[in-house]
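Hi Y.,

Following your request, here is the sequence exactly as I used it, all 215 residues.
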Amino acid sequence: MAIDDQLDIEHLTWLVESRAKNQKASLKLLSLFRSYSTEIKSSRPALIAQKLVAVAFSLWRAAFLADKKNQDGLEHADIFLEKMIVDNAINYPQDRTARAWSFSYYISNARHHLKQLAETWPSVKPIGPTSRNPRARWSYLQQVFEIAVNQFESDLKAIRARNEAKSAAKERAKADTKAEVSDDVVAENASEGAVADISDSLDADIISKPQNSQS
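Below is the corresponding structure, written out as tokens. Let me know if you'd prefer a different format.
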């Protein structure tokens, strides 16, 4: 690492703590994928889940690039574009070399998806911060991301509860239908039994009557 690219301990401390926050929220998001695998497959939750992954990745990558200082964004965009054309490949080292541009790219991507999610959840609308400090911008969007993950969890719980209520209602309806059929069968059997009793009674009367003897 070049001497002018060395990071001080204060920034490295922020970097480690920030990555931990991002990975903790990302781990929670992954746990929702696993715990609500049925609910998450419906169209709306599936779209939201993918947007949240986009935010998670964008913030994860941006944290490594938040030490950009006053470099020229246009100059770094030029460097990035040239590397893409010359090498036909872009990896983390290229992101870092052009971080005055790449940091803004990832931050803008995270903000874009959070703005879309705000159409569903107004509480996650990324309206700040006013500071241009890269770390402040990152930290603010990370907080919004955590709110979004918590909101997603609440929505999935509500979807599961609604589905379980619908399933229980269907089971009750089936049970009621079965009970009605059972009652009808009992009534029909009782009716048939009554007819049989009358028939037996008539037969008994006929048998018990003495026949007139012929002379």
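The chain is about 75% helix and 0% strand.

Thanks again,
Q.
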